[in-house]
Amino acid sequence: MSTSKQHRHASRAHSGYRWLSWLPLATILTLFVIVFFLAGCGGSSDATTSSENGEVIIGLTDAEGDHATYTVDVLSLTLTKSNGVEVETLPLNTRVDFAQYTELTEFLTAATIPNGIYTRASMVLDYSNADIQVEDASGNLVAITNIQDVDGNPIQTLAVS
């Protein structure tokens, strides 16, 4: 393990784990790709007949990181239409270990959604039972239990857009 990587691991093991340093960035990027894909789903009608709906398949991927595990509960995955209408695409809460999706895409859900132009995707993550572990300078796994936002407040849930 490189010296700078050892330092990052040691620092995280001894201080609060800040959200900007561990947020699965590739997951956010995947959501944005989904939004642009959905822009081609048809007109802007809000009717819900089967001919006015489309199916979206949502997958998760994550960039390579230094987490041995990064398991959180995904409570919600919402798409927002250009007119502000929100569509929930995740039927059940799902426990996900993002560390397992490094450099690959895993199917998460398929949903039938109204045709339209979607401009935003957001996901709500629940950290109350999170299992996040990194390696310390000696290569031992260290559980990260003190997960904080940028102001030092504990994080229970986090909405990512």
Question: Can you describe this structure?
Answer:
With 161 residues, this protein is of the alpha+beta class. The protein has one domain (3-160). The protein is built from three helices and ten strands. Strands 3, 4, 5, 7, 8 and 10 form a six-stranded antiparallel sheet that branches. A two-stranded parallel sheet has the order 1-9. It has a two-stranded antiparallel ribbon with strand order 2-6. The chain is elongated.
Sum this structure up briefly.
The chain is an alpha+beta fold and 161 residues long. The protein has helices at residues 3-14, 19-22, 25-38, and strands spanning 17-18, 53-60, 67-81, 86-88, 94-97, 106-114, 118-135, 141-144, 147-148, 157-160.
Fill in the keyword field for this structure.
161 residues; alpha+beta; six-stranded antiparallel β-sheet; two-stranded parallel ribbon; 3 helices; disordered N terminus
How far apart the termini lie comes to 33 Å
**From the alpha-carbon coordinates, what is the Rg to the nearest angstrom?**
18 Å
Instruction: Provide the helix percentage.
Output: 10-25%
Given as residue ranges, the uncertain stretches (5+ residues, pLDDT < 50) are 1-23, 43-48
Helix/strand/pairing category? alpha+beta
